[in-house]
Amino acid sequence: NWTVAATSIQTAVSAATSSGDIIEIDGGLNGITYNGTITTVVSGVTIKGSSEATHNGRVTIDGSGEGTSVFTVNSHDNCVISNLTIKGADLGNYNLLIWTVANSLNISDVVLENGYRALRIGYANVTFERCLIENHSDSNHMIRMFGTTGIGRATFNNCIFKDNTGPIYYYDGEEVHFNNCLFVGNDVTVMNFIYSTSMPVY
After folding, report:
1. Whole-angstrom distance between the N-terminal and C-terminal Cα of the chain?
2. Closest Cα to residue 112, out of 144, 142, 86?
3. What pLDDT is stored for residue 35 in this prediction?
4. Could you tell me the pTM of the whole model?
5. What is the mean pLDDT of each run of 10 residues along the chain (202 residues)?
6. In the 3-class helix/strand/coil scheme, how is 139-168 assigned residue by residue?
7. Of 96, 40, 35, 34, nearest to 68 (Cα)?
8. How far apart are CA 72 and CA 92, in angstroms?
9. Could you give the CA distance from residue 200 to residue 91 in angstroms, rounded to a whole number?
């Protein structure tokens, strides 16, 4: 019932108390941009742009000027992020479009654009489906992974990496899997092998 919906995304996310809760974000008829940041508070939640008629315009979350990561999934497992555009992470080492140390996270039909860095994945298993990752400006890291051997895996299925300055940077035994992905217009080599001799790329 949209008439009694929360007035901010974080208010709705903070009100989710149980695994399986779904936060559906209003995109209006032609798309709505929300300014600010989001932090999960419980495992197992889904946060997605609405598919309901008259509310299914594209939802954009813009963290420009916030000085922190736009979307944080911190130790909350089995969350889903879907059907959103996330943009505007500012210059800074820990300013990402998405920062996660969750055990399991699924990201689908999401555009990650115009940030300093796109992602930081720590000790996490993250699957990306049909995502567009474009226009990130940090020459050192487009995506940074860190963890220990056997903990830390990123799987990209049917994703596009476009016009990014920095590479995917990972070390300490994580795995990266690419399935039917397209790389176009990126300025540097996509993979940057650091600190380990045994880092599988598939």
Report:
1. 44
2. 86
3. 93
4. 0.89
5. 89 92 95 93 94 96 86 87 90 68 87 84 86 86 69 87 83 79 83 54 56
6. CCCCEEEECECCECEEEEECCEEECCCCCE
7. 96
8. 15
9. 30
Structure tokens at 66: 């916030």
Identify the residue whose tokens are 């208010």. 11
The pLDDT value recorded for residue 108 is 97
- Quick one: tokens of 195? 């600190």
**Residue 99, amino acid:** W
Please provide the DSSP assignment of the chain as one string. Answer: -GGG--SSHHHHHHH--STT-EEEE--TTT-EEEES-EE--STT-EEEE--STTS-SPEEEE-TTSSS-SEEE-S--SEEEES-EEE-PPSSTT-EEEEE--SEEEEES-EEES-SEEEEEES-EEEEES-EEE----SS-SEEEE-BTTB-EEEEES-EEES-SS-EEE-SS-EEEEES-EEES-SS-SEEE-S-S---B-
Return the residue matching tokens 């996660």: 100
Rounded to whole angstroms, how far apart are CA atoms 125 and 105? Answer: 6
- The owner of tokens 């996509």 is 190
